[in-house]
Amino acid sequence: MKQEKLFAGKTLAILSGGGDTPAINSSIESVRNRALMLGFKVYGIRTGWKGLLGDGDIVDLTNRPYNGLYGGTALRSSRTNPFPSKKNPEDRVPQVMKNLKRYKIDVLVTIGGDDTNGAAKRLYEQEGIPVIGFPKTIDNDLRTLTMHSFNGKETDAVICPGFPSAAKSIAEFATRLKTTAESHQRIMVMEVMGRDAGWLTGAGTFGGSTISLIPELEMTKERKERFFDAVADTYKNNQNKSLIIPVSEGVRWYNEKTGTCDVVYASTEQDEYGHARLGGVCGTIASEISAKLKIDARAQMTGYYPRSGMCNAYDRRLTQALADKAVDLLLREEYGQMPVLKKVCSYGELEEFNCGSIDMGKIGNRPLPTEYFDETKFVFTDMYKDFLEHIIGKPEFETFCTDFPKVHPID
Ligand code: F6P
Question: Are residues 293 and 325 located together in one domain of the fold?
Answer without folding.
Answer: no
